[in-house]
Design a protein that fits this description.
272 residues, alpha+beta, 5-stranded antiparallel β-sheet, 7 helices
């Protein structure tokens, strides 16, 4: 079977002639494309947030589908988690603008792919669904033709999808849709792992901040107890009263007490 990208007004362009199979390294033979479960994308290294991981995913997916089809394909991604509003990322500004447009329309292929749980193709020739005429026109104005959106399966409470943007006159053949779906399978496992790692890191950072805050308060209370020969509850009440009068956090008042010590504030160090 030959994989092609269909170009209107021209002969079909052969992109891949191995029917979705690839040559094994160092061998002339062919082997099936591996299952998504056998691959993970690095969406963790040198990234700090889910937005960073999503951007890296969009960039990687764009490169992968471009390599598969032989024509430049751009990619945008959207991610919704229980923690906040949807976040979006893309491999360039044009694709990012089209992904953001779905928010204004309250509809689009990314949202439809998530809802349907299957790939959605927005043809550039005015075919169905008719409700996306404004979206199609914006794609054409941005220099794109057909759009392919595929859902990325994540844990319950989260949703994600990838949108691939083809150049004008280019159509996504069924084999390209299959490859994009395969990429989405890889992306799902990879993004889940990245989000879990970032959640653990954030929890560690929050715990460290809480411990350092608590330590500052406890040490400041000890200073007040020594100066005033009072109990811990009395010392804490003094900090709380100063916090109310000055409109500061108790931690900030405590740090002020410690900074005024002759030797300066004692350092705290936690390995989390």
């Amino acid at each position: 079977m030959t994989v092609t990208v269909h170009v209107a007004g021209a002969s079909s362009r052969v992109v891949k002639a191995d029917g979705g199979r690839r040559a094994a390294a160092g061998s002339a033979g062919l082997e099936p494309w591996p299952e998504p479960s056998g691959f993970l994308l690095d969406l963790v290294t040198d990234v700090a947030t889910g937005v960073d991981s999503l951007r890296r995913l969009a960039e990687t997916a764009a490169v992968a589908l471009t390599g598969y089809t032989g024509v430049q394909i751009d990619c945008a991604a959207t991610l919704t988690t229980p923690q906040g509003a949807p976040i979006r990322a893309a491999n360039n500004g044009r694709a990012a603008a089209l992904a953001a447009m779905e928010k204004d329309l309250d509809d689009g292929p990314l949202a439809q792919a998530i809802e349907a749980g299957s790939p959605v193709v927005v043809a550039a020739d005015g075919g169905p669904p008719l409700r996306w005429q404004a979206y199609r026109q914006r794609c054409l104005d941005a220099g794109y033709g057909e759009v392919l959106a595929v859902p990325v399966r994540l844990d319950a409470g989260m949703s994600c999808a990838l949108a691939f943007f083809a150049p004008p006159e280019v159509r996504f053949a069924p084999e390209a849709v299959s490859q994009a779906t395969w990429l989405a399978g890889v992306a799902g496992r990879s993004l889940r792992l990245a989000l879990e790692v970032q959640s653990v890191r954030a929890a560690g950072d929050n715990l460290k901040a809480v411990l350092e805050s608590r330590t500052s308060i406890d040490v400041a209370c000890g200073v007040i107890m020594g100066r005033n020969r009072c109990s811990y509850p009395d010392a804490f009440s003094m900090l709380a009263g100063a916090s109310t009068r000055k409109g500061l956090l108790v931690r900030e008042v405590a740090e002020g007490v410690l900074n005024n010590l002759p030797s300066g504030a004692p350092g705290t160090r936690f390995e989390v």
